[in-house]
Specification:
- The strands form two sheets. An eight-stranded mixed sheet has the order 5-4-3-2-1-6-8-7, sandwiched between helices.
- It is globular, with a radius of gyration of 21 Å.
- With 407 residues, the protein is an alpha/beta fold.
- Helix 1 packs across helix 3, helix 10 packs across helix 11 and helix 11 crosses helix 13.
- The two termini are 13 Å apart.
- The chain has two domains: 154 residues, 2-Layer Sandwich (Nucleotidyltransferase, domain 5); 183 residues, Nucleotidyltransferase, domain 5, CATH 3.30.420.40.
- One of its GO terms (molecular function) is acetate kinase activity.
- Its EC number is 2.7.2.1.
């Protein structure tokens, strides 16, 4: 079965092609036959296309035009043309899976896309304005390029649909609940993948594990996972809630927003920009939303960069503590995504707070760029895992499983 995966972001569209030939899914992610990415630069109408294949062939092009759907379609044509050709015809693709950030209350599991699903994704764009419209563009690009091929929506909010009401409902007026204002959680595809991979690495049954998964990229979130289900998470009604992030503030006193609206010349739009684009590591450090650049500035004696690091670590430890309280214990702490996978310093800083629980990190293992490895000491009471998150493979798995059910 040939499965094409599209992972839409606000400024990029990533894609990859898997070929599953066995009757059962492989436990570990196979290497994609083909990977493509469209990056939209700040120059209007310019797209950077990057493609590579499993055999090492590559393609890089800049193309012009304002149609993002046309740019995605062009990327897909590289599947069947020149050096990056891996298919004779696009009709060889059996199913296409899409990462959709927000599924709302009604879409808790992956579904085959029809007009009703497309309309629901569009309606939820107000809750995920940077991502749901981009997912729709990808769906429509596939319709134009591949016709009526089966398409599947995999929702980032789906994994967190098991949150108990005590964790999901905000303590505002009850009519908020009736309006769908609740904690949805995000990065669910990544958290779910890492939970399953953690069980494989530890040789344990997932339903017997209590896990905290730390997705630390430009966006950051934690999930408390018990018996294979998400029971708490840090992101909320939107991806703005929770931990300090690259350029997002995370949780703040809502009274600050009321104060700014009353006492300053902020509008809803300008507040949205400040909270999402000019806060977090970028806002405090004044250097960058990228953690390595903040660390480099600390080495040069930059006070604001050091303050940004201290806040980031404090918020991360506080978040882990809240997840611990929900779980009532911990078998493994998992780090994933950009900083989670690549920064030994952030893993060390996060783990030091929990030495009183008998959590001991092996400093040498931690420094060795570990991937899918347990970096706790042998006598640690809690395992510490670094896992390379593979959202695309998780989406492909769900496509494969859904197609088996529908056959």
């Amino acid at each position: 079965m040939k499965i094409l995966v599209l992972n839409a972001g606000s400024s990029s569209q990533k894609s990859c092609l898997y070929d599953i030939t066995d009757a059962t899914l492989p436990q570990e992610a196979p290497k994609p036959l083909w990977e493509g990415k469209v990056n939209w630069t700040q120059d209007r109408g310019v797209a950077e296309i990057e493609v590579k294949t499993a055999t090492g062939e590559t393609l890089q092009e800049s193309i012009y035009g304002d149609s993002r759907k046309a740019h995605v379609a062009y990327m897909l044509y590289t599947l069947t043309r020149s050096a990056t050709k891996v298919l004779s015809n696009l009709s060889e693709i059996d199913v296409v899976g899409h990462r959709v950030v927000h599924g709302g209350l009604n879409y808790r599991n992956s579904v085959i896309i029809n007009e009703d699903v497309k309309q629901a994704i569009a309606n939820l764009s107000t809750l995920a304005p940077a991502h749901n419209p981009a997912a729709l563009e990808g769906i429509e690009a596939i319709e134009q390029s591949l016709g009526d091929v089966k398409q599947v929506a995999v929702f980032d909010t789906g994994f967190h649909s098991t949150l108990p009401d005590a964790a999901a409902v905000y303590p505002g007026p009850y009519d908020w609940v009736e309006k769908g204002i609740r904690r949805y959680g995000f990065h669910g595809i990544s958290h779910q993948y890492c939970a399953n991979r953690a069980a494989q690495i530890l040789g344990r049954d997932l339903t017997d594990l209590r896990l905290i998964t730390c997705h630390l990229g430009n966006g950051c979130s934690l999930a408390a996972i018990k018996e294979g289900r998400s029971i708490d998470t840090t992101m909320g009604f939107t991806p703005l809630d929770g931990l300090m992030m690259g350029s997002r503030c995370g949780s703040i006193d809502p009274g600050i927003l009321i104060y700014l609206l009353r006492q300053s010349d902020y509008s809803a739009e300008s507040l949205d920009y400040v909270l999402n684009k000019a806060s977090g590591l970028r806002g405090i450090s004044g250097v960058s939303s990228d953690l390595p650049q903040v660390l480099a500035a600390i080495e040069q004696g930059n006070y604001r960069a050091k303050l940004a690091w201290d806040i980031y670590v404090h918020r991360l430890r506080t978040g882990i503590g809240s997840m611990l309280a929900s779980l009532g214990g911990l078998d493994a702490l998992v780090f994933t995504a950009g900083a989670g996978e690549k920064s030994p310093l952030i893993r060390q800083a996060a783990c030091e707070a929990w030495e009183f629980l008998g959590l001991k990190i092996d400093s040498e293992k931690n420094k060795q760029q570990p991937i899918d490895v347990d970096i706790a000491t042998l006598d640690s009471n809690v395992r510490v895992l670094v896992i390379h998150t593979q959202e695309d493979w998780a989406i492909a798995q769900q496509c494969w499983q859904l197609c088996q059910i529908k056959q």
